[in-house]
Write a structure and sequence with these properties.
The protein has 17 helices and 13 strands. The chain has helices at residues 28-33, 43-47, 95-102, 112-121, 146-158, 164-182, 185-198, 211-215, 219-229, 245-256, 305-317, 323-330, 362-379, 383-395, 404-416, 423-432, 436-446, and strands at 54-57, 63-68, 74-82, 106-107, 110-111, 125-130, 134-142, 235-241, 278-283, 288-296, 335-343, 350-358, 453-458. The strands form 3 sheets. Strands 1-2-8-3-7-6 form a 6-stranded mixed beta sheet, with helices on both faces. It is globular and about 60 Å long.
C-alpha cells in the first residue's frame, strides 16, 4: 500500500500519540526528482529557533496552517478527513482501506496507467492512509509543478474512477496481504485484541477488512465511502514549504473546493471502556508466542493525558529505559522486547502493550508484567524516573521537525487532536509541570492490572495469568 500521512516552533518536546502513520511512498522517478525530503524546511528548523505558523483561509473559506519556507523548492501538504475506518459500513470491513489503495488508480478521464504516468512525470507523491478515526492524505510536489499537481490531486479526490480492472488488481494485492497477516503472530494478536476489547463497536473490526469483505467490495461501495466522508466540514490541512499564503489559498480551493460542504458520517458511539479480565489463546505453530495486553486508556482531551503519557513512557514506552523492559528482559531474560503505548482514539482510548517470548515463558512473562503494573499503580514512580522522562521528552521533540514532511505531519496531528495553534509553544511547560503526585494519581486511575484483556498467539506451554469472564 502507498500509505500516507509549529504559533512558534522551538526546540521543545511534544507528545502526540497516534495509532501509526505511514510515511510517503513514491515511484523511483519521483524519489529522484524531488529534493531531499529529510533536509530542514529552513535553517531555523535545524537550529531549533522560531518558525512561524500562519492560519490561512482560502477565498472559498477553507482553512489551513502554513509554515512558509523558501529554502527548498518543495511543498509538503498533509490533510485529513475525520471518519476513517470507523465509517466502514457493517459487513464491508476494509472499505476505507480499499479506497486508500484506489485513489491513484485513475481519475476523471485518466485511467490508472495514464494517471500514474502523469504523476511520475510531475515528480508528484500522493498517498492516502486509513486510521480508525481519520482518512489521511499526503501530497508532495516541486513548487514549479504545483498547479498541475494540485489539479491531478483534485481529480483523485473528486472524480475517482474505481475501474473494475484496477479494482481486480488491487483486490488481489489486499487479499495477498491479508493472507500474509494470517501467519503473522503480532497482527493476529492485535486484531484479536481489538475484537475482544471492543466487541461489535467499529473499533473491534479489522481496518484492512476480511477476505470475505474485500472479495465482495464493489466500485459503488468505494464511491459511497468517498461521498460520505470526503467533505469540507471534516477537513484539516497543513502545508509546509515553498508557497505563499496567497498561493496556498488558491491551492486549497483547487484541491478541496469541489468537495461537498457537508459530510454524511454515520454516528459512532463512544466505546465502553475495555476492561477484563479476559483472555484468548490462538494456536499457531511458531517458535515463540506473541501476547498483546491492555485495558481502557485516557482520552487526549483529558487533563490527565500528559501525566499518563509520561507514565506510559516510563512503564513501557521508553524502549530499553522502560521498567517493563528492565524487569522482563534485563533482569530475567524472558523476552527480547516488551513495550506499551497509549492510543487516544476519539471514541475510546486504550493502553496496550506487547511482548514476544518463548512458548514456555509466556506465563512467567505475563506474570512479571502484571506484577510490575500492580507495583506502579500502588506506589507510583521515583523522582529520578520522572526527571529522566521529562528530560528526554522535552529534549527529543525538535527531532520530529527536521523536514518539511515531518513538520507537516506533526502540525496535522495537533489540528486533529484540537490542541490549538499555540500548543507547541506551551507543551514543554505542560510536561515540566507534572509532579510525582500527578503521576501517582494517574497510575492509580489508569493502570488496571487485574482487568487485563490479553490475546496470545503461538503455542504457550504454561497457563498465562488467570482470567475470568470479560468485563
Amino acid at each position: 500500500m502507498r500509505n500516507a500521512i509549529r504559533a512558534s516552533l522551538t526546540a521543545i518536546g511534544v507528545c502526540l500519540v497516534v495509532a501509526s502513520q505511514g510515511l510517503l511512498a513514491s515511484s523511483a522517478l519521483a524519489q529522484k526528482a524531488l529534493p531531499d525530503a529529510t533536509a530542514p524546511a529552513a535553517k531555523e528548523t535545524a537550529q531549533g529557533n522560531t518558525m512561524n505558523i500562519q492560519e490561512v483561509t482560502s477565498p472559498g473559506g477553507i482553512k489551513a496552517w502554513l509554515v512558509e519556507s523558501h529554502v527548498n523548492p518543495l511543498i509538503a501538504i498533509r490533510f485529513a478527513f475525520f471518519g476513517g475506518a470507523s465509517q466502514d459500513e457493517p459487513g464491508k470491513e476494509g472499505q476505507a482501506y480499499f479506497v486508500t489503495s484506489m485513489l491513484d488508480e485513475g481519475a476523471g478521464e485518466l485511467d490508472a496507467a495514464a494517471f500514474q504516468e502523469r504523476a511520475q512525470s510531475l515528480a508528484m507523491r500522493l498517498d492516502f492512509d486509513a486510521s480508525r478515526d481519520v482518512m489521511l492524505g499526503s501530497l508532495q510536489t516541486l513548487a514549479e509543478n504545483k498547479d498541475e499537481v494540485f489539479e491531478l490531486a483534485r481529480l483523485a479526490m473528486t472524480e475517482p474512477r474505481f475501474d473494475e480492472s484496477a479494482m481486480k488488481r488491487v483486490r488481489a494485492q489486499i487479499l495477498a496481504g491479508l493472507k500474509y497477516d494470517e501467519n503473522d503472530p503480532s497482527t493476529v494478536a492485535s486484531v484479536a485484541w481489538d475484537r475482544l476489547a471492543f466487541h461489535d463497536h467499529p473499533y473491534g473490526r479489522p481496518i484492512k477488512g476480511t477476505p470475505e469483505s474485500i472479495a465482495a467490495m464493489t466500485p459503488e461501495d468505494l464511491h459511497d465511502y468517498v461521498r460520505r466522508v470526503f467533505a469540507r466540514d471534516q477537513l484539516v490541512v497543513t502545508a509546509v514549504g515553498d508557497i505563499t499564503p496567497e498561493e496556498l489559498g488558491k491551492a486549497l480551493d483547487t484541491l478541496f473546493g469541489g468537495l461537498p460542504e457537508k459530510s454524511d458520517l454515520r454516528p459512532v458511539a463512544d466505546a465502553k471502556p475495555p476492561l477484563g479480565p479476559a483472555r484468548e489463546v490462538i494456536k499457531m505453530d511458531v517458535p515463540q508466542s506473541v501476547a498483546q495486553f491492555g485495558f481502557r486508556g485516557i482520552a487526549r482531551s483529558d487533563d490527565d493525558f500528559i501525566p499518563a503519557y509520561i507514565l506510559n513512557y516510563i512503564v513501557g514506552g521508553g524502549g530499553f529505559s522502560s521498567r517493563l523492559m528492565e524487569e522482563v528482559r534485563e533482569k530475567r531474560g524472558l523476552a527480547y522486547s516488551v513495550s506499551s503505548n497509549l492510543f487516544p482514539y476519539r471514541h475510546g482510548s486504550v493502553f496496550v502493550g506487547n511482548v514476544a517470548t518463548k512458548n514456555e515463558a509466556v506465563g512467567q512473562s505475563l506474570h512479571v508484567i502484571q506484577s510490575e503494573l500492580e507495583q506502579v499503580a500502588k506506589e507510583g514512580l521515583s523522582a529520578d524516573q520522572l526527571d529522566a522522562a521529562k528530560s528526554y521528552l522535552t529534549g527529543a521533540y525538535a527531532l520530529r521537525f527536521e523536514s518539511s514532511t515531518s513538520i507537516a505531519n506533526q502540525l496535522l496531528w495537533i489540528q486533529i487532536e484540537n490542541l490549538g495553534i499555540d500548543y507547541v509553544a506551551k507543551r514543554n511547560a505542560l510536561i515540566e509541570a507534572v509532579t510525582l503526585d500527578d503521576v501517582k494519581r494517574v497510575a492509580a486511575r489508569l493502570l488496571a492490572p487485574g482487568q487485563l484483556i490479553t490475546t496470545i498467539v503461538g503455542q504457550p506451554a504454561e497457563q498465562p495469568v488467570h482470567a475470568g469472564a470479560p468485563g
